[in-house]
UniProtKB/TrEMBL annotation:
One of its GO terms (cellular component) is cytoplasm. One of its GO terms (biological process) is protein sumoylation. PANTHER family: SUMO-ACTIVATING ENZYME SUBUNIT 2, UBIQUITIN-ACTIVATING ENZYME E1. Residues 11-448 form the THIF-type NAD/FAD binding fold domain. Signal peptide: none annotated. Zn(2+) binds at residues 191, 194, 489, 492. Keywords: ATP-binding, Metal-binding, Nucleotide-binding, Ubl conjugation pathway, Zinc. Residues 644-660 have a biased composition (Basic and acidic residues). Residues 506-576 form the Ubiquitin/SUMO-activating enzyme ubiquitin-like domain. This is Ubiquitin-activating enzyme E1-like.
Length: 669
């Protein structure tokens, strides 16, 4: 044993240390949390066991398929990240240096982390986790998956792939000083989608365009309306501004007329009067139209319009040069005249870029010209509506939806991820190390498992939901028991199976429907793909169409959902595509579903019994608590009530602090 492994072995014990070394893990994301997770994995020896050697006889007898499968199961760490390194990453992603800027994060992370422990096998992929090669079969080759992502769509995708592959997932995230780590396993714990997630906030169009009252309203106006209308695409494509039921239809029509007028002003780009026409149009003419609507200002102060001519006369300097000098002072709050100068400078710079061939310019918080334009325009509009002004630094955070990233939060969260990984690996029987074998329903016991001695132990080795709680001054790390799956969750409640699609198949949708009828034993169901619903009992015109229009053997990360439409519906069936190799046998030319035996349970009924009483009350028993009740308290922050409940308990007059078993580093029995 190497000296570097002795500390890990003393903490974990030799059996778990061996499992750690022979494990194969996937890390999705090599950013703030991802860099720290990779460093911890490498230093703890994950995937450092050399691949087993084979003698000549066994090598000759091994088929090509078996060889490919054996290669996939080799111990190691696979890192996937689509991004390249940016200057702003260097303050918290410590595997990167200045000379690495513009290089792929995955490759540089592998290079730097390998120096910590050269015996670890690291495979780096500069790609998107949505790419078709990362299918369910790819995920099945791992013992454990770590999520270190920064967007909701990718998190949901990895969550669904791990459910389909029946592989444990360690989900993590940070928000400023707060953090969260969650262990997820199909049929054992709730998944990432068991509780609803907040959607992107949008604002009513009339609030943004007519009656702003907050700085964010002016920022969204500058970012999602003014900037796209002049340098990009129309606001109709923006997700930040939406027409709501409360919006006045006549006012919305008037606002569309204003947008059309602004497009005409855009045609003056490159001429000397362009800046003046743009400024007077949005900061004078449009404001004067709003002022004329007196009924809007009966209970609030009306806006005060600005004119280009007056402001330019009050500045005794070259406006463009003055704005260029002020733009550097991004942490200072500019005055009205300062914002006017920066606006003119950024408008001139962006016009030159557009005239040089950059026909469509999109807002980017890291593009200084676009940020200067949005910040100055937002502040000018704030001044008009008597809203406090902000520095460009503050506006950048709001316009770019930036949540401050704290290096220490990332490091603590990453360490908790690896501690939870130890527990998950401990919960896996040694004979199941490697490729997990799912059951017909992909389900395991939900709460406890029995050991050889008959003792009941928590599932997933006692894993917990762990939080970094900056609001608690007494205990920063708090935990909460994992919750069983939500039976109504549309992502983890279905049964997952595979649809084998032969290479170059000419099968039709009708053949798939017939196969499903044979496997499911009933006719009333619907079939939904990425293209929408393609079949149900009343929709059969798509049956003659080639299955390749909806399913391709090359799109293994796409899913087909089969929903029972009968009076007593069973849970949904979700199929992932599996490419079958070309061969001469008849079995290779027909569609196949794996596993061959499907056992779909009935969907859970309503919580009320026949007499209209909640289940349990009829027998004098307390009604069970709904799975979703109180669940929203846990996401993204540890509530003070939860923190207090697990931080301490009272015994007499003495306050006793409770130490959770799962928080000890020594986890070997």
């Amino acid at each position: 044993m190497q000296r570097r492994d002795r500390g890990v072995a003393q903490s974990l014990g030799l059996p778990i240390t061996k499992r750690v070394k022979e494990s194969r893990v996937l890390l999705v994301g090599a950013g703030g949390i991802g860099c720290e997770v990779l460093k911890n994995l490498v230093c703890c020896g994950f995937g450092s066991l050399p691949a087993p050697t084979r003698n000549g006889a066994s090598a000759v007898m091994e088929s090509a398929t078996e060889a490919a499968s054996r290669e996939d199961k080799q111990p190691g760490i696979v890192v996937i990240d689509l991004d390249t390194i940016d200057l702003s990453n260097l303050n918290r992603q410590f595997l990167f240096r200045k000379q690495h800027i513009k290089k792929p994060k995955a490759f540089v992370a592998k290079e730097t982390a390998s120096a910590f422990n050269p015996s670890v096998n690291i495979d780096a992929h500069h790609a998107s986790i949505f790419d078709h090669q990362y299918d369910v079969g790819f995920f099945e080759t791992f013992d454990l998956v770590f999520n270190a992502l920064d967007n909701l769509a990718a998190r949901r995708h990895v969550n669904k792939m791990c459910l389909a592959a029946n592989v444990p997932l360690v989900e993590s995230g940070t928000t400023g000083f707060n953090g969260q780590v969650q262990a997820i396993k199909k049929g054992v714990t709730e998944c990432y989608d068991c509780n609803p997630k907040p959607v992107q906030k949008s604002f009513p169009i009339c609030t943004i365009r007519s009656t702003p009252s907050q700085p964010i309203h002016c920022i969204v106006w500058a970012k999602s309306y003014l900037f796209p209308e002049i340098f990009g695409t129309s606001e109709e494509d923006s997700a930040d501004v939406a027409v709501t039921e409360g919006d006045n239809a006549e006012e919305v029509a008037k606002l569309k007329e204003e947008a059309e007028a602004l497009k005409k002003v855009r045609s003056l780009m490159g001429k000397s009067e362009f800046a003046q026409e743009v400024f007077n149009k949005v900061f004078h003419d449009d404001i004067e139209r709003l002022r004329s609507m007196s009924e809007m200002w009966q209970s609030r102060k009306p806006p005060e319009s600005l004119t280009f001519e007056k402001l330019s006369r009050e500045i005794d300097a070259d406006i463009i040069k003055r704005g260029q000098a002020l733009a550097i002072q991004d942490q200072s709050t500019w005055s009205l005249h300062d914002n006017f100068s920066v606006f003119c400078y950024s408008l001139d710079a962006l016009s030159n870029r557009s005239q040089a061939g950059e026909k469509v310019i999109e807002f980017d918080k890291d593009d200084k010209n676009t940020l200067d334009f949005v910040a100055s325009a937002a502040n000018l509009r704030s001044a008009i509506f008597d809203i406090p002004l902000h520095s460009e630094w503050e506006i950048k955070q709001m316009a770019g939806n930036i949540i401050p990233a704290i290096a220490t939060s990332n490091a603590l969260t990453a360490s908790l991820c690896v501690l939870e990984a130890f527990k998950i690996i401990r919960s896996q029987p040694a004979k199941q190390q490697g490729l997990a074998k799912p059951t017909a329903n992909n389900n395991l016991p939900t709460e406890t498992q029995s050991t050889a001695s008959g003792k009941a132990e928590p599932m997933l080795g006692g894993s917990k939901m762990v939080f970094l709680n900056s609001r608690s001054t007494e205990r920063m790390i708090t935990t909460q028991n994992l919750v069983p799956p939500n039976p109504a969750c549309p992502v983890c409640s279905p049964v997952y199976a595979k649809l084998g699609v032969p290479a170059g198949t000419k099968a039709t949708l009708h053949e798939l429907v017939l196969l499903l009828k044979e496997k499911l034993g009933h006719d009333e169901f619907s079939v939904t793909t990425d293209a929408g619903m393609v079949f149900d009992p009343d929709l059969d015109e798509n049956l003659p169409k080639p299955l390749s229009e909806y399913v391709s053997e090359s799109k293994g990360n796409a899913f087909i959902t089969v929903s029972d439409e009968s009076d007593e519906p069973k849970v949904d069936l979700i199929l992932s595509t599996l490419a079958l190799p070309e061969a001469g046998s008849a079995s290779s030319t027909t569609l196949q579903i794996e596993p061959t035996q499907l056992n779909l349970p009935y969907k859970p009924k309503s919580s009320e019994n026949a007499e209209g009483q909640p289940d349990g009350e009829a027998n004098g028993e307390p009604a069970p608590v709904s799975i979703g009740e109180g669940a929203n308290k846990r996401k993204r922050e540890a509530d003070d009530e939860v923190a207090d409940s697990i931080r301490k308990k009272t015994r007499g007059d003495e306050e006793v602090h409770v130490v959770q078993d799962d928080e000890a580093i020594l986890i070997d029995d």
